[in-house]
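Whiteboard transcription, Tuesday session. T.W. wrote the structure tokens on the left side:
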């Protein structure tokens, strides 16, 4: 599997089952000759997989032009709502860039009959998978709600469609402009964060609809008057320019009744024809070199290509997968595994409505010449263009694509479920079953078609951008504040009378799947639950190890060992292993949280037996080839260097040791990558010893969610694992005996020059453990820090507009848990932001401003009603089973939450928070430009220590 990125966001620490993913990586090209000897894999025919992809639906259109699609799925008492507006950034004329994205924010800010943040009623009704997004071609809003809350959700969505403008005040407009500016800063502040602007401006000529980024121009937003903003809404957000999908526990008849009731009275809007856009061709190749504060040189080669409706789109997507998308891709095999001149590669075809962008990307290994790597990549590409892919490569691409589609059928909503598939097809192709046409095109594509598409589109001039490490070049940063915002008054909106907001019915308690237990013939415990919505099986083998198993002198060893496990196993090299998974539509991943190491399998049940056989190879028979260790060592050192360029990663490398101390198994970088000194010192013997110590059957539990009954799954597992015998040595135990040092409040400022935003991370080690009952504390913290409507996010984002989002949460560690605050804020508000955070904490904990009756009811309603939609998928059930086991909870824990939560009082929440959280003990890490930030921090009266982002001299 390809590496999915550093485990650095603090939010990732909040789920015990969110691991540091390793990759199925490359083996040397010299081993390719051995591939003929790789074990044959018997997979279900692709035609059978394609036939399994089906989303039955009913379609009707209201008199006002609203298109409604309804899909029945009664497996859970929830309904997904998905509203897609046929307007995106490509539809913005000159002078109005960013308007579509701005309206995504404004339409969450309240409507005429639902004033205030939409997050309040959505949280109250127990919505899950709730969000809104904007891109080139569309704006969408989606949420999954308990069936008894459906009418209120429909009222809310219809109110922001038809009764919006009277709720947009000048204050609201200015606030959301500020939030958008901080969203832009947050993206720009990342390594390579400015490259997207360069790519769009190079590929598309002046005036082309796809030339500007979705976030748009801050100057355009500041110049927009209230009337201009109103006109934009009126022109683009009418019901005849939208698609509404209802998927889940609903019938077509009921859907028609309710949509007529809530959406029917909305007047039809102007006819909107989405912007047309030709596919431009560069007159000549363009090569550009830029500098940024990055660890690796990056080379990107891109072309503008046809959009999703063009017959060449699928062949180009297949080409991208063969070139750099599959784990066994040609670029991976040659540049990463074979020649080892790149640490990561990728290729993809982003197919939008009118155009697409075909992109190749290489992160160059330190010490290698970017120009030489680029030349080699072009040579590999040219070979593919000249000869086309093999039929076997196409088969593996199609099988993986069908597998992803099948697994996506399990979820009704969100941004990847059945509602999305129907909405996209209707919006872009006028056909809700467009997903079937795409799937059929994949299944039917030939090597000749892929070759022809590449020869037609990828032999044209390309844009090449090389990013080299260095000082970031000047660019147009978001304004410090929307001080130049246009405040031209507009006439008062005459509001229309409307029905009262409907009440929410009684939401039943969640029915968590029955959990069964068994043992394999060697004693390994199996914990099983059944989910039969799709023909899929998910298996997680958890080992009691994790990042905390690392010796202090060998940080990074556990995660490096886990990565090596799927770099060749069972007599297969890494390429053969990747190809075998691709042929089965399976995915095997390894990873670790703080407390456990895991090897996971996601499989199509028709291919379960050979998929489990591959899983057993990875777990029981890893090769640990010395050449692979050296390659992954170099990749790991490159990853650590990359972490030292990323704001969140820098903070999460520094904070654990500051709060836990160096002796604690938790006092190491949360990413699990280790440090340069330890990684350089790890030997093959260390890796083999670590595997032997921790990866053993008596230290493991097997968790399964499948559409097959346990009686049919157990023989497959026994055949693969039943003869696995533990070693004679005693089972290892992690040592948590070292005391955690007393907190010493201070601020550690990590100097990262040219940062338009500061990343703040703070916290303390609480006096409680994850195995304690933390339900009351976490409910209290929903009010204080861990919710969009929390005190701290409401203050810094929704009131002050200094940040795009702020959070404070307990991490799901089994031992002593940390309380972590994360707050990316605009640089000039760094000191005031910490002051504001402390003010909110102190007001809540000791200032007499504890949980209000409204906050209590919102928390109770949200935490109980959302249970209905929380375990819809097999992945969610698997995650809950693993977390329950890690934290010592009963198997039916999810079913006990509602009754306990309904009984909570404000006094209980206040007492739990006061007993656990002490902001006077917080240690803060700030990653930002010291020349801008330090004077602000000095004014706070807290000791400030300045550090470099570079590693300390060893």
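and on the right, the sequence the group agreed on:
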């Amino acid at each position: 599997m390809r590496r999915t990125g550093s485990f650095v966001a603090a939010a990732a620490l909040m789920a015990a089952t969110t691991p540091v993913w390793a990759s199925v990586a490359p083996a040397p090209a010299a081993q390719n000759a051995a591939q003929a000897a790789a074990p044959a894999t018997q997979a279900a025919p692709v035609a059978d997989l394609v036939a399994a992809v089906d989303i039955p639906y009913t379609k009707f259109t209201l008199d006002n032009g609203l298109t409604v699609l309804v899909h029945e799925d009664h497996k859970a008492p929830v309904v997904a709502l998905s509203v897609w507006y046929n307007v995106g950034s490509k539809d913005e004329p000159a002078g109005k860039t960013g308007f579509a994205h701005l309206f995504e924010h404004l339409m969450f800010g309240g409507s005429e009959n639902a004033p205030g943040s939409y997050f309040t009623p959505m949280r109250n009704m127990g919505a899950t998978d709730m969000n809104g997004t904007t891109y080139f071609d569309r704006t969408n809003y989606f949420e999954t709600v308990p069936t008894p809350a459906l009418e209120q959700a429909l009222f809310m969505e219809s109110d922001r469609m038809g009764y919006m403008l009277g709720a947009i005040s000048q204050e609201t407009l200015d606030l959301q402009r500020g939030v958008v500016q901080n969203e832009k800063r947050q993206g720009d502040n990342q390594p390579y964060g400015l490259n997207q602007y360069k790519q769009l401006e190079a590929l598309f000529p002046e005036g082309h609809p796809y030339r500007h980024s979705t976030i748009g121009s801050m100057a355009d937003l500041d110049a927009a008057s209230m009337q201009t903003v109103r006109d934009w809404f009126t022109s683009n957000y009418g019901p005849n320019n939208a698609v509404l999908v209802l998927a889940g526990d609903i019938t077509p008849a009921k859907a028609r009744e309710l949509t007529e009731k809530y959406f029917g009275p909305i007047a039809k809007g102007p006819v909107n024809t989405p912007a047309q856009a030709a596919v431009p061709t560069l007159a000549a190749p363009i090569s550009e070199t830029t500098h940024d504060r990055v660890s690796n040189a990056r080379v990107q080669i891109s072309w503008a290509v046809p959009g999703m409706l063009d017959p060449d789109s699928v062949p180009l997507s297949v080409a991208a997968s063969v070139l750099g998308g599959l784990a066994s891709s040609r670029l991976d095999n040659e540049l990463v595994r074979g020649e080892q001149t790149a640490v990561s590669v990728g290729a993809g075809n982003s197919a939008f409505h009118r155009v697409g962008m075909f992109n190749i990307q290489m992160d160059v290994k330190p010490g290698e010449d970017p120009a030489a790597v680029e030349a080699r990549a072009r040579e590999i590409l040219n070979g593919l263009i000249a000869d086309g892919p093999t039929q076997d490569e196409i088969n593996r691409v199609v099988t993986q694509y069908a597998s992803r589609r099948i697994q996506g059928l399990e979820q009704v909503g969100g941004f990847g479920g059945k509602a999305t598939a129907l909405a996209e097809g209707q919006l872009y192709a006028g056909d809700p079953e467009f997903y079937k046409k795409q799937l059929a095109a994949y299944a039917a594509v030939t090597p000749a078609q892929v070759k022809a598409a590449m020869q037609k589109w990828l032999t044209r001039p390309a844009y090449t951008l090389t990013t080299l490490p260095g000082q970031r070049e000047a660019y147009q940063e978001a304004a410090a504040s929307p001080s130049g915002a246009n405040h031209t008054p507009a006439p008062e909106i005459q509001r229309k009378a409307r029905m009262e907001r409907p009440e929410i019915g009684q939401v039943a308690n969640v029915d968590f799947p029955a959990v069964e237990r068994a043992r394999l013939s060697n004693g390994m415990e199996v914990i099983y639950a059944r989910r039969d919505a799709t023909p899929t099986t998910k298996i997680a083998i958890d080992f009691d190890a994790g990042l905390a198993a690392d010796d202090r002198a060998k940080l990074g060893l556990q995660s490096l060992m886990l990565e090596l496990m799927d770099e060749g196993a069972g007599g297969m090299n890494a390429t053969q292993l990747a190809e075998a998974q691709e042929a089965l539509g399976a995915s095997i991943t390894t990873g670790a949280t703080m407390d456990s190491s895991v090897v996971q399998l996601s499989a199509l049940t028709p291919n379960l037996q050979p998929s489990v056989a591959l899983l057993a190879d990875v777990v029981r028979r890893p090769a640990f080839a010395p050449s692979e260790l050296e390659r992954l060592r170099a990749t790991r050192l490159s990853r650590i260097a990359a972490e030292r360029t990323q704001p969140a990663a820098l903070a999460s490398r520094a904070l654990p040791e500051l709060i836990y101390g160096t002796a604690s198994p938790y006092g190491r970088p949360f990413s699990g990558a280790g440090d340069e000194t330890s990684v350089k010192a790890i030997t093959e013997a260390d890796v083999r010893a670590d595997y032997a110590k921790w990866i053993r059957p008596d230290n493991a539990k097997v968790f399964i969610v499948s559409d097959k009954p346990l009686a049919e799954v157990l023989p497959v597992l026994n055949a693969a694992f039943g003869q696995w015998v533990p070693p004679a040595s005693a089972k290892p135990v992690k040592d948590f005996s070292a005391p955690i040092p007393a907190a010493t409040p201070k601020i550690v400022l990590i100097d990262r020059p040219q940062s338009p935003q500061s990343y703040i991370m703070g916290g303390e080690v609480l006096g409680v453990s994850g195995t304690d009952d933390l339900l009351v504390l976490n409910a209290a913290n929903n009010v204080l820090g861990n919710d969009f409507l929390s005190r701290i996010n409401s203050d810094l984002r929704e009131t002050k507009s200094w940040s795009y989002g702020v959070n404070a949460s307990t991490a799901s560690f089994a031992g002593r848990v940390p309380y972590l605050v994360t707050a990316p804020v605009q640089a000039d508000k760094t000191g005031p932001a910490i002051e504001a955070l402390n003010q909110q904490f102190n007001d809540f904990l000791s200032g007499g401003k504890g949980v209000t009756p409204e906050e209590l009811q919102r928390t109770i309603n949200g935490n109980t009603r959302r249970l209905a939609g929380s375990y819809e998928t097999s992945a969610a059930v698997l995650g809950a089973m693993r977390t329950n086991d890690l934290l010592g909870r009963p198997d039916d824990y999810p079913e006990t939450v509602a009754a306990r939560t309904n009984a909570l009082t404000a006094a209980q929440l206040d007492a739990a928070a006061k007993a656990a959280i002490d902001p006077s003990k917080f240690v803060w890490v700030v990653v930002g430009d010291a020349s801008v930030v330090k004077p602000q921090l000095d004014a706070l009266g807290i000791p400030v220590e300045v550090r470099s982002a570079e590693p300390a001299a060893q």
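Someone added at the bottom: Confidence is low (pLDDT under 50) at residues 1-40.
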